[in-house]
Amino acid sequence: MAAATSENTLSKIDSLVEGKEEKKTRRASSKVADVYTMEELHADGKDIKIAPETQKLNWKLNTSPATLDEKDVLKKPLCIPMVKKVDLHFPLGLEVTARNLRGVTIKDALDAIYKQFKKKADDELDNPVLAGFEFDPEESHTRFVVHQKKEGQAAPSKKKKKAEE
Question: Per the database record, which ranges form the DUF6699 domain (predicted)?
Fold first, then answer.
């Protein structure tokens, strides 16, 4: 019995751990000014505006976003105010998520879509071209609806310009 009581009074002391207090705060690198979650924007009642440039891209869902001619558009935020993550909902039920802690850009959204469709052939897709995004807070305050179309506008070909010269 004496051995049992002496075990209870003894305790190990680790000099590396004892005396240090752990802070339970978020890393400063994870926090970016003016970047919110969709839930925070809904709670605050803020209005979300989607970048109109997404409607003019005429981008095929199964081609890499890096092939777009307008590279500067890819760096623009997908919506104002900027969000950390957004769910992109397709009319047939597919849902993909675009994430970026510094704010989701158009490139982040296109990359998330491309990842789903890169193995599909053109004839497998009913509407292979991105028409734009829509935010409907009555339906869901956390996601954007993806609109697609059959064909994009014909891009001006460079062959004609060379032939004219």
Answer: 59-125
